[in-house]
Amino acid sequence: MITAKEYLSRAYRIDQRINSKLEQVQALRNLAEKASGILTGTPKSKSGNPHSMEDTIAKMMDLEEIIGIDLKQLVDIKHEIITMIKCVEPTQLQTLLELRYLTFMTWEEIAEAMNIQVRQVFRLHGKALGEVDNIRHT
């Protein structure tokens, strides 16, 4: 059985994976652009791999397809988390959970947004996690 914190953190982990894959796609795109500049500027070498550009583009497309799948999963999980958070009372706890687990704010950013001290954010967070656990186990 996963904890309330682990349950709510699933969206963040998927978001991190998506960002990592986007960086990989960008790196491949940069590589392809460099290769195309080299290929168009000089005569073709007989010893080079004529399919390297196609391989790079295929890898980019594969990664983009995986990113699409991850994005769908992220949307589904965020919807599930939103539904859970809406059941938490009072609304101050809902706001804290939304800021932390849906917009991925830091504790300091949450404190500033809610106009409270970081220490108070931690206290409310613990209370909010308890509410999520109660909802999940009823």
Task: Walk me through this protein's architecture.
The chain is an all-alpha fold and 138 residues long. The protein has one domain (4-136). The chain is 80% helix and 0% strand. Helix 3 crosses helix 5 (118-136) and helix 4 packs across helix 5 (118-136). It is elongated, with a radius of gyration of 22 Å.
Helicity range:
over 70%
How many helices? The count is 5
- Structural class determined from secondary elements: mainly alpha
- Inertia-based shape: elongated
Integer average pLDDT: 89
Gyration radius, in Å? 22 Å
The ordered string of helix (H) and strand (E) elements is HHHHH
- State the major sheet: none
Cα separation of the termini = 14 Å
Percentage of β-strand residues: under 5%
- Total strands: the figure is 0
Count of separate structural domains: 1
Poorly predicted regions: none
What's the helix and strand layout?
Elements lengths: L3 H38 L10 H35 L4 H11 L5 H8 L3 H19 L2
Helix pairs in contact: 1-2, 2-3, 3-5, 4-5
Key terms:
138 residues, mainly alpha, 5 helices, 80% helix, 0% strand
